[in-house]
Every structure is written in C-alpha cells, then in structure tokens.
Amino acid sequence: MKIKKTYIAFLLIFSFVSCSSEKVLKIESPNNKIGVSIQTTSGISYMVNFKDSVIINSSKLGYEFKNANPLSKNFIVTDYSITQSNTKWTTAWGEKSVIEDNYNQLLICLQEKDGFKRKLNLYFKVYNDGIGFRYEIPKQKNVDSLLITQELTEFNFVKNHSGWYIPANFESYETLYKNASLNEIESANTPITLETEAGNFISIHEANLTNYAGMTLKKNKAASFSFKSDLAPWPDGVKVKAKTPMVSPWRTIQITDNAKDLVESNLILNLNEPNKIEDVSWVEPMKYIGIWWGMHLGTQTWTLGERHGATTEETKKYIDFADKHKIKGVLVEGWNTGWENWGKKDAFDFVTPYDDFNLKEVTNYATEKNISFIGHVETGGAAQSFENKLEPIFSMYQQLGVKAVKTGYAGGIQTKGQFHHGQFMVNHYREVVKTATKYKIMIDAHEPIKPTGIRRTYPNMMTREGARGMEWNAWSSGNPPEHYTILPFTRGLAGPIDYTPGVFDILYKNAKNRVKWNDLDDGTSRVNTTLAKQLALFVVLYSPMQMASDLIENYENQPAFKFIEDVATDWESSKMINGKIGDYITIVRKDKNSDDWFLGSITDESQRELDIELSFLEENKTYIAQIYADGMNADWKTNPTEIDILKKEVTSKTNLTIKLAGGGGQAIRFLPINK
C-alpha cells in the first residue's frame, strides 16, 4: 500500500480579535464553508460556523480530575501552528480504494498562568465535511499520572434540530433508533445524526478511540439544545486513567449540505493513523456462511446434544456448500466446550472441542477446498480470561490455517464493575486486534466497542456488530422495516456493520422444530422485510465480511442466491444515489476487482417508485442489468418472498424506475458486455 504525503505549513487564518478582552483564534475548512473559533481567556470554548451561520454556540472544553484542580481556565497561549494538508491514501479494503485527506489544522499550546502552570494542547482539524478536535496533555514535570473524572466537552447547538439516536448505554448499542427533537433527547450513544430545517446534516461521534473511555452524550441542562460528553467509568468512578503524554480521541462533528455527502464522508477514517501492519496481503474481504442462525432460531443448540449444530458432519456440509457456491468462509459457533456453563465465571477455555466436533479434521477439510474456516471465541463477558490466553488461542488457530476469528462478549463483563465501553474494555478490544495481527488473523467483533476508524490503522479489524442485528428477528418482535433505512445515516457512519443479512425463509416455514429459548420470543418472530430487500442489504449495509446468514437448505435451488454468489465485498468506489433517513436509501458500489457495479435500494414500510439515473456507469459501455425486484404483489407483511428476477440492457444514459414493495428492496448487478 502506497501513501502519498505532501505537507505545506503556512499561515491560513489566525487572529487575536479584541472582543470583551477575550482572545479568539479562527480557522476555516479548505472550501471556507466551515469555520471554527476558539477563545482561551475566560476558560476554553469553541464555536462552529457553517456557511456564515453559527451552528454550534460557544461550547466549553477542558478536564476535571480526581485529586487535582480542573484544567479548563486561567490559560495563556504560549504557541500555535497552522498547517494545511491535501493528500490521498490507498485503503487496504473498504467502500473506496482511494481517499482524499484534505484539511487545515490549528494547534494551540496553552499553559496555566499560575499554580503548577500545567500545559494543555488543543488540535483542530477542519475538513470540507466537518471537524475533528482533540486534547493533548503533554509530558511535563508537574503532571505524571492522570485520573480524569470529567471531560468537559460540550456541543451547544443553536437550534432544536431533529435527531436520530439510541439512548446512551455503557454496555450495548443493540437498540432501535429513535427520532426526536434535541430538546426531547436526554442522552445518546454516538453517532447521533441531526437534520436541520434547511436539510443540512450534522453527526457527532469520535475517531481513534485509543486507551480512553467511550464517549456518550447527555443533556446539558445549563443551555438549550446542548449536550456534554459523558464517558463510561471505571468501578471507582474515574473515567480515564493515563500517564502523560496523553492524547484523547478526536471528537468529530460531521457537517454536510445533504445526506449524500454525510453518508460518503471519510472524516472518521482520515482522523486515524495510517496502516501499521504494512503487509496486508493476508487481509481478505469475503462472504461467509455458517452454523449460527439455527441456534438463534431454536432449531439447533450451541450445547452438546441431539440438536447440537456444530458437528463435524454438519460443518462439512457447509464447507461443501461454500465450495459449490463461491462463498469464501464458513463460521462455526458452538464447536467448543463451555456453553453448558453459560453465565458462570470463566465458562470457556476457548480451545477444547465437543466430542462430536473434530477441529483438525474440519479445518483440514476446509483448507483442501480453499475455504476459510472462521474461528469463534465467545467469552460470555470473561474478557480478562480471554486476554490471558490470547497467544495460545491465536497460535492454535494459525497452526490450523484459520485466517479469521469472530469474537463475542455477550452478557456483562465479568471483571467487577467494568463496562463494555469503558477504558478497560477499549484497551482489551485493541489488544485482541494487535495480537491477532501477529498471527495474521482477521477479527469480526460482536458486542464490541463502537467503530471509530481503527480499521485504517489495523486493517485486520474487519467488521463488528455494534447494532441491533439480524438475530433479533429470530427471538423477538424483530427489527422494523425502517431500521435498515436509518442505519446507513447513523451507525453506518462509524464503520462496517456485521449485520448478517440474507435470510430467505422469512416466515420460518422451514423451521418447524423451533424451541423457544429466549424470553423475548412471544411467538411472533419473523424477518420484517421482503426477500429482495434481504439481497439489497448486501450492498446497502457495508461490511468487508458479509454473512449470508440463513440455513444452507434454504438457499438450495433458489435462483435469488445467484446475487449473493456474485456480489462483491471490496469496492473501488461507492455512491449514495438517493435517500431520506428513516424512509429509503439507494447505494451503488463498483467492485474493486472487476468492472461490475452493484445497486441496493431499500424502503421502510411504505412502497415507493424511485427513478435512478445510471450515470455512474462507464460511458460508451453496455451493461446487462441483472435485476432482483420485489414481485408485483410482494409486501413485507403479507407476501414477503415473491421476487422477480429479470435482465435488461442498459447504459450510462439509461434511467431506471425502481419499484419497491412495502418493507421491500431491489438488488441489481450491472455486468458490462462486449458489443
């Protein structure tokens, strides 16, 4: 991977403006649409302008500590620097192969006027699509250990925007999104996405979350439409424990004219460090199937017994199916002992197979057919036990030829008082990825910390859950049709989602021997989409590891499965064609390894007709559009599996009318032909 770098340091905009005897520092985006003003005299605060209008009022910055005075006021500016950077870098994999990194940066060096004269540095990077800012407490003689009890960052919005969010939770992101005005929102996990009356978009998140606690937002009652940072704590109430020098994650504010620019933004990735692995030839995006859905349905079990899913025989069937249908990977959950002790401390040793599963035989069989066996480590919250055994676990997998491992942290963290999203676990998740790198293993994390762009630095951090995924449809009232039309504008902004689409037996007609195992199962469970929408999700919800999640018998002799065989997982470019958060969205992506384009279009519970211009296709080329559309009478409630599969010749000048059933979708492969 080659990275081009060009750095030009020069004075962009810097002014000490007299305003009530306060000093103000200013910097703008390269296109001059976004401006940030920072005042440093009566405390530290920042303000944001977008197209000459204030969108974030004066908002506080700083820290509070245990056994130390706050670091938030009484400063002088000792130095500053302003730089511009406009480069491009090549992704190891992703929605795009090349990403532009164009920003103006202001670094402000502060020192307290008296007392210990502690130092604090602030970094502001301003892009055309938003802002990233972070704190740095440098190495200094009067400060060594840090016990942060509060990060004082505020986001004081000017107007009562409409927000799409999930309530703050230090343990999980598996919640349905809500839509409310800012004055009605008490707290939120990030990303939280706001839509203004003018149709502009703002999203708050964080980037490069490293050795720090995950940030949520809570209502700041001192101001209207205002939120402040709320970090997941340690058991003693301290939020972050660190040594100097310390840098915080970037606090990100994406700001765009429209939803399309928001969805296509690369701000989060750009604020992360470049690839540290260097040789990424072993990092391979893939589609996979697996022994997983049956356990959630209740037709199989994770535990040993007559309904055990992960047997040697069953796994070989999945490997054979993958080999036949151009699917690269096979995941197997429940192959190792410990599931019978669920809920007990350190229930798993992570390496001992059940009696009906021969791990070496299975992995050898997969290798012979050039199929990637995807390992699985469920911790049941025993993160420390897993971390203590990382080396032997990953060494075992490497020796068996395993290149990818799915991890899970269902249940509370067993280390007393720790949260999934606190600093303890943030560091744990990172240690897993770094250790996996040594053994050339890719990671798919479930019950994770949220994505903050670390995939750029460690490209083997492939995908993660961190959303209310497919399994909720197996044992609860499920995810409503609009859920999928919200995710790309919210959780999807943070990074890949292992949502696990691709269920064909939508009404579970072929799952007649289901056993209820989850208290949320009231007997009404089903998938709340059409079949065509399940295909479209392979394009709309991005992941470099995409699971076709249904039981393989539901794919046999199904013409619609051809789309899953054909769809790519690594992209040259991606574009949002149209969309409205909570209503519908259409995404197109070009395969990195061919000239094929793929389209996914989905809607909420309302049926729609969308006109699509195919101008994204290469000019002077003819394509065959292989279309997988909702049938004439399809509807997610009454007739979800009716699907029409047809072909049509198209060019870049063609306009297509896409008809979506209620809760439906459409998937298209555009295959160039020689004329």
Provide keyphrases for this structure.
single chain; 675 residues; alpha+beta; 11-stranded antiparallel beta sheet; 8-stranded antiparallel beta sheet; globular; disordered N terminus
Describe this entry's structure for a reader:
Helices cover 14% and strands 35% of the residues. With 675 residues, the chain is of the alpha+beta class. The strands form six sheets. Strands 1, 8, 9, 10, 11, 14, 15, 17, 18, 22 and 23 form an eleven-stranded antiparallel β-sheet that branches. An eight-stranded antiparallel β-sheet has the order 2-3-4-5-13-20-19-16, with no helix packed on it. Strands 29-28-27-26-25-24-30 form a seven-stranded parallel β-sheet. The model is unreliable at 1-22 (pLDDT under 50).
How would you summarize the topology of this molecule?
Blueprint: E1 7-9, E2 24-28, E3 34-39, E4 44-50, E5 53-61, E6 63-65, E7 68-71, E8 75-90, E9 98-112, E10 119-127, E11 130-137, E12 145-151, E13 154-157, E14 162-165, E15 178-181, E16 187-189, E17 192-195, E18 201-207, E19 215-219, E20 226-231, E21 240-243, E22 246-247, E23 250-256, H1 259-263, H2 267-270, E24 286-291, H3 293-297, H4 312-324, E25 329-332, H5 359-368, E26 372-378, H6 383-388, H7 390-399, E27 404-408, H8 423-438, E28 442-445, H9 454-457, E29 461-464, H10 472-475, H11 483-486, H12 531-540, E30 545-547, H13 561-566, E31 571-580, E32 584-591, E33 597-603, E34 608-613, E35 622-630, E36 643-650, E37 655-660, E38 665-673
Parallel strand pairs: 24-25, 24-30, 25-26, 26-27, 27-28, 28-29
Antiparallel strand pairs: 1-8, 2-3, 3-4, 4-5, 5-13, 6-7, 6-12, 8-9, 9-10, 10-11, 11-22, 11-23, 12-21, 13-20, 14-15, 14-17, 16-19, 17-18, 18-23, 19-20, 31-32, 32-33, 33-38, 34-37, 35-36, 35-38
Helix pairs in contact: 4-5
